[in-house]
Amino acid sequence: MRWIMLLTLVFASDSGATHEIADYRYFRSLSIDLAGRPPTRDELAAYDKADFALDAWIEAHLTGPAYAERLRRIYMDALRLEIGGSFQYVPNPVMLRRQQVAGPDGTPIWIYFRRGQRRVDAARDGDFCLTQDETGQQFPTNAVATGTAKPVAQAVLDARTIVVKPWWLYADYRDSMPEDFVAPDWAKRYPGFTPAPALLSEPDGKTTSRAVRVCREEAQTADSGAVYVSGRAGMKKGDPLPGGRMSQPPGDSGFAKNAKGRAVSCLSGTGFSSSIECGCGIGLERCLPNAGPQNEAQAFVIPARTPLGTALPFEANPSPPAAWVRMWWGEEAARFLDSLFSADRDFREVLTSHASSVNGPLAQFYKFLAGASCCGPGADAGYSEPDPLFDPAAVPQALTPEDTATWMPVADRGPHASGILTMPVFLTKYGSRRARAHVLYNAFLCKDFIADSVKLSPSNDPDLTKRAGCSSCHQTLEPMAAYFTRVQESDWTWLPASIFPMTPKPEAKCTGPKPSGLCKQIYDQAFDKLRGAYASPAHAETGPNGLAQDLVTAPEFAPCVVQNVSESLLGRSLAPEDEAWKTQLVKVFVEGGYRMKALVRAIVKSPRYRAGNDHT
Amino acid sequence: MKAVLFSLLAACGTGAVGGGETTALPAHQTRMLDTTPKERRRMVPPEVYLRAYLAWFGGLVPLDVQNRARPKGLFDAWDDYLSALGLPDYKTDLPRQNQSNTLMLATLGRLGEALCVRAAEHDLHGGKTPLEQRVVFAFEMPAANAGPEAAFAERFDVLHRTFLGYPVKLAPGDRAERFHALYKDVAARHASVKGPLTADETGWVAVCTALIEHPEAELY
After folding, report:
1. How many domains does chain B have?
2. Residue B31 touches partner A, C-beta closer than 8 Å
3. Which of B38, B96, B220 minimises the CB distance to A28?
4. Which residue of B has its CA nearest to A47?
């Protein structure tokens, strides 16, 4: 023991001018892990000097972006918080598509529209705002127009559409006379914000688009609209489609019939689908552009490869708006982790914190876009105003959608917020309740689910905590997954208890052979409870906050952090002979207030870390 | 089983074993067992490698490196190399690779060669770049062809510190001599070759490339 202490003292003491090869290798390791790069020649020259203070150097590097990135890598490797194209984000309320028609003089022009936009006229309701009679074309769902275009009369064009200076072309789009048009200097002001070339020119490919023509309903700016009931009789199969449209106009939903005339938020999906007064807002700020009518047409040039962060892309391609949104979801989590590490905050906040930070694109998402996935069949139960995981009122008002560079703190996202657990990137990366629970079990308790080797017998028991062959894992997994009962799967919509009680109300019509859509989506008939809650209704009621508390107070939490960090810095798995050292590190970590700096300091100054480099 | 017993009995039946003189076992050397933990060295994380690479390339951003290197045939596109470096792809749940493989080593070699050629063009060729602006070859070229060994070692030490992080005098074996031999050999082979670099510069490119591909550069 004494010689270990002696070694520690020797290794930890400041070096003199006469270094051995092991000293240089140790310094190089420290530089790689704490400064994010090998030492420069100047740094080596400084290290060679007799007065070089290694302890002070270490202390100075236990903070800052490179240190934060090093620790972030550990948890990003474990959680992989980036979303690829497999998660399609194309909600109709926020996606502005465009079709090409012939203008009054025969020149091709773009008209932007939303699929599903409510309009009074049955020939246009839920569809493109110009008809076959007016354009000579038909407009299939998610595809380019068919037929021979004929010039649209000026009067028709003026009646159906309006010219708007949109947010993606004008930074000051909220002004009455926007002038701050997209220009080369935006690359410095808004690094990474680059509209795809297809958004910047007219159909001739030469003329610069200085504004966009959009259907009038989409250009509306009201915050709320009245629930609209068309009163149209339901169409039967084979009935002629009005105005040459290619699909049936939307009917009146049960919600619309029950809530006719009631005010509904235009920021919710329910407002979009049930009111003719809801549009994309000022400068179309509630919508994302697509350079085409299809899902995921081009919108922005986005970094495709970013191992050193989005500010240093290795590749950039024109990509759909979904990729833009997904990228910033991932960036929010990365920034959140960085802020924990660089400010040396209590690491338990990774799961419990109500705080975050946002830039322009994220502010736009939380203010205007996030509510679009609410509320589906929940509207039938009276849920039409989203109870958000990230309160839009908490979003800094100063941020414009293109302002990628300014990150502003948000001290409290709202009562349901809980570290990374309620961030869109986590909730969509791990779409199911069980997937969410599993990855947390793995990353924060360092445990995994390993099935029993039992003979599987046929079973239709819906309770997986009892079913043979399933129960060994699901006894733990199901109660953990239950914490996410009130967050819809592959989404961030919160299901408030005031509207969705644990056991369905009789009006939800969950009994009988034909349960309602609400019942099928929200409730589980097998247990007569909210879907996902059966193993622990109590967990369901405490939500992600409850899970976060359970995880950070679990006896495995601190040892798991120590294991993750030390294994990453040592570059090997911990072995049984490391157990005493690990216990010591856990003590350092916990007594240090669960802060990473104390833990990392103890690891990099340990003989084990130095010995990580003892091969020649 | 019977056959085994029979063969054993037959072996015993060849006669009694005679007694012999006993002799002391010869003394053997006692060697202390080294029980200190021996670790497998870690791979330099690809993020660290890339950051260092960009700095050595002149502090350019990645897309500028590609634009600068591609027309000269030094480089294809980052996309061709990044996957091979062992980077994780969080979008597709591709994990980080913590062990090297032949493709990774070939990629590091290709990138290293591109860097060294570009650095020689910038730092050495024509002697136009002031010493303080030289990123990799931060020394004046020796006057003579190969230069005396001491002159080589002094300059080699600059590269050795840059890529491996310690003075060459501490390197195991006869590293300086072997690299000097490499330098002389490559320079001699290019003595009559017309190319964008002189024979001496090409020799230094070979030294640079060999160093950046050295296992010590890729491990820590």
Report:
1. 1
2. no
3. B220
4. B166
